[in-house]
Amino acid sequence: MNELEIEARGLTFHLVADGPDDGDPVLLLHGFPQNSREWDRVAPLLHAAGLRTYALDQRGYSPGARPAGVDAYTLDECAADAAAVLDALSLAAVHVVGHDWGSLVAWQLAVDRPERVRTLTAVSVPHPAAFAGAVGSDPDQQRRSSYVTLFRQEGKAERVLLAEDARRLRAMLTGVGEDRVDLYAAPLAEEVALTATLNWYRAMRYDELAATRPSNVPTTYVWSTGDLAVGRVAAQDCARHVTGEYRFVTLDDVSHWIPDEAPDALAGAVVARAALGT
Fold first, then answer.
1. Order of strands across the sheet with 24-29?
2. pLDDT digit string (tens) for 124-154?
3. Tens-place pLDDT, residues 255-273
4. What is the DSSP string of the chain?
5. Which residues contact 162 (CB under 8 A, 6 or more apart)?
6. What sign for the dihedral angle of Cα 239, 73, 101, 5?
7. Residue of 3, 87, 132, 270 with fewest CB within 10 Å of its CB?
8. What distance in Å separates the CA atoms of residue 251 and residue 271, rounded to the nearest whole number?
9. What is the average pLDDT score of the chain?
């Protein structure tokens, strides 16, 4: 395992590279409130299948990549980061796997720079237009996404999430395993770090998500029936926004935290998608 500091776009990103040197490259993109450690249980399974992984700590999560201001945390910026990191690694095109916010970045990368994405495995969060459409029309998804209102409130969200030794932040991670909660919560205990990661929510515009073009990249979308954040309407609508070869994988009785809770099933979906894309 190689822990690297990658210079890209005037920022410094922490990245973990591992697996066979000659393996097909896989870029792993985490979500909130996690970090690159969320791939700890998935990456070794990908290595065993002959793939080489690059797990990135994204903008706001890498200490050297925390620009000031909400506008610095749009999906366009985050997708540009991913492309620049690939440039720094001299990787022309890769298999991309993203979970939660990492999924939205992966979708954006596939839409804007399809030549960089050999295959896409989106985990938990569907195509941005499918998600935004559900938020706009489905009462169940509106209820599931209601927490975003708090996260958008600068200052208040930080106070609520960090109060009582970050009790509410830690409670969000129910399902990752008690031994892993601190891996994700501890790095965000410093308010400057939490603010940077919450800025992803504050920069989000549902109308922009809704306007996202269809993706023509070969795609697998993995969704779990126990996901509290993403409902069935959004999940099932994903197919309508993918023009490339598409598979929908449903995991029963698994929470939102698929990489932690169901690494074998997820790795199997990634390996199958990568094999189809080569």
1. 2-8, 11-18, 51-56, 24-29, 94-99, 117-123, 219-224, 246-251
2. 999 999 999 999 999 999 999 999 999 999 9
3. 999 999 999 999 999 999 9
4. -EEEEEEETTEEEEEEEES-TTSEEEEEE--TT--GGGGTTTHHHHHHTTEEEEEE--TTTSTT---SSGGGGSHHHHHHHHHHHHHHTT-S-EEEEEETHHHHHHHHHHHH-GGGEEEEEEESS--HHHHHHHHHH-HHHHHHTTHHHHHTSTTHHHHHHHHHHHHHHHHHTTTS-TTTHHHHHGGG-SHHHHHHHHHHHHH--HHHHHTPPPB-S-EEEEEETT-SSS-HHHHHHGGGGB-S-EEEEEETT--S-HHHH-HHHHHHHHHHHHHHT-
5. 169, 189, 191, 194
6. positive
7. 3
8. 16
9. 97
Here the tokens at position 149 are 């209102």
In this predicted structure, what is the pLDDT of residue 277? 72
How many C-beta atoms lie closer than 10 Å to residue 205's C-beta?
A: 11
| pLDDT above 90: percentage of residues in the chain | 99
- pTM for this prediction: 0.98
pLDDT at 4: 95
pLDDT in tens, 87-138: 999 999 999 999 999 999 999 999 999 999 999 999 999 999 999 999 999 9
Q: What pLDDT, on a 0 to 100 scale, did the predictor assign at position 276?
A: 86
Measured between alpha carbons, how far apart are the two ends of the chain, in Å? 25
**Unique residue bearing structure tokens 């979970």:** 99
